Write the structure tokens for this entry.
Amino acid sequence: MSFQTLLRRLKTAIRLIALGELSSLYARALFLLRERRQGRTAFTDQPKTYAVLTPPHTLYLGHAIQAALAKAGLPCDVLTSQDVLSFASETAPDFYFVIAPQTFKHLPPGERRIAFQVEQGVSDRWFDRRYLDILENSRATLDYSRFNLAYLAQRGIAYPHVYYAPAGGLPVYSSGRELTPRGANFRRRVLFYGDASSPRRKEYLAALGERFDLQILTNTFGEEVQQAIAAAAVVVNIHFYENALLESTRVFECLSLGARVVSELAQDIEDYEGLDAFVDFAPVGDVAALVAAVERVLAELDQPQTEQMRSRPLQVQHFLQQSQERFEFMLCRTLLGVGSLSYAQFYEAVGPLKTMADHGAYALSLPETVARRAAFAKVRPSNMEIFDGLRASPSWVGCALSYKYLSQSALAFGRESLLVCEDDVQLPEDFLGTLTQIESHLTSRAGGWDIFAGLIAHLAPDVEVLNVEVVGGLTFVTLNKMTSMVFNIYSRRAMTLIAGWDETNPDPHKNTIDRYLEAQPDFRVITTLESLFGHREDMQSSLWGVGNSQYSALIDKSRELLQRKVLAYLQNQGDSR
């Protein structure tokens, strides 16, 4: 750590103590400890070979990871058992994903593994001290559920140590597998596979067994389960716990193998957008409703095929492809975050953001900061997509990479402008109307601006006012520089500059993305004298680990300076006349 960095952190600590912000000081210290731990275990050489270590019941997830790594050009083996001695052998893989690591007696060294946590945080059943230590002592912890991330944070496993990667489909999962063709009775066969010991599952299975040709598989994995799924008309998904999360790995495995799925609803169903079009859901705890849903699917399969039924397989494949791409993105995002994948490798693997073809407005948000994401989701404008921000250590590098990736994607799709806000922005009450007015003014100034800044966090004392215009009741001010990324609209020139940001420069005093932009020559920043946009003080900074309230004085000071600068400019303009 440099003397400059140490001095800056000491000043921050003294300021927080003087303000009585001891909770903020504690949060900041905890954040720095986690981030420093990531830095200490940085790779000297990037891993070249990978392996997934998985118990048999999560083999599908292992294959999904293998497919994602193949997309990034990284060889990966899927293993269901491992001799402890082989972790240290010369032929051992460089790096491991370990799924359900608590099920293994021996594990790869912590710095050589990512723990993929697949248990449900609705129960403490698995989360004993040994398991929590495994998660904490891994290079990172990966989880499929944002609900689980909130639970893990309560147990001390929190951002920036955790990553999110929801399960997805594998459209070609059955290719290369010799699956037995469905027999004549497949139209009536109903399958359940998994642990059938739960009392609530027993109740469901008893009701299903009275009505259908029900097959129950327990302690059965791999090829045998795949054959059973392929031979079934319907696979039923029943929660082990009453308030369970969706068993998404099972659901996507069945869809990938061409099965129809009937499932109970789950409290995290919103995490799987579009899934309800391809899975028949029944209310939680309603045995009769689930039985009726199975009956409807079987009756549909018995009917002559309609055009809609014939088109369903293609629609399912398209949905599975989209979900697979999302999983691949989130997995590569994790590898980027822990430093085992360079940004160039990441971009080559995932390509430009496909939604950029239809959307030019994004809210930058980390799914691992659960409270911030949830708070923004409640106020998200209809025209704005949420982008899962990229991760790196230190965090300001990941932030800048997010802007770089969005800018590269926008340029790849030929966009002339890009709106990006952060999820702790405070939007005006009539956001869409205000945005229309701002965009209209920017269009009239085509070629005369680089960035529109909704909020300026820091205004340098030597900033110059280049122009002041009053349009439609708003005072638009053109400046030669500014520092803030809370709510900005970027021109093509600004996007080109951001796309060229150098992620290999580690200087946080000059190379944070806002300081980088502030240093650009001949820059034209348009803002409004009116305070249209704000910064939520009740949120925690995902970059620095302190509450946003720490920035309030700086923002107020910048507003006051802007007002003085504008007044001086107008006086000078009057004098010149």
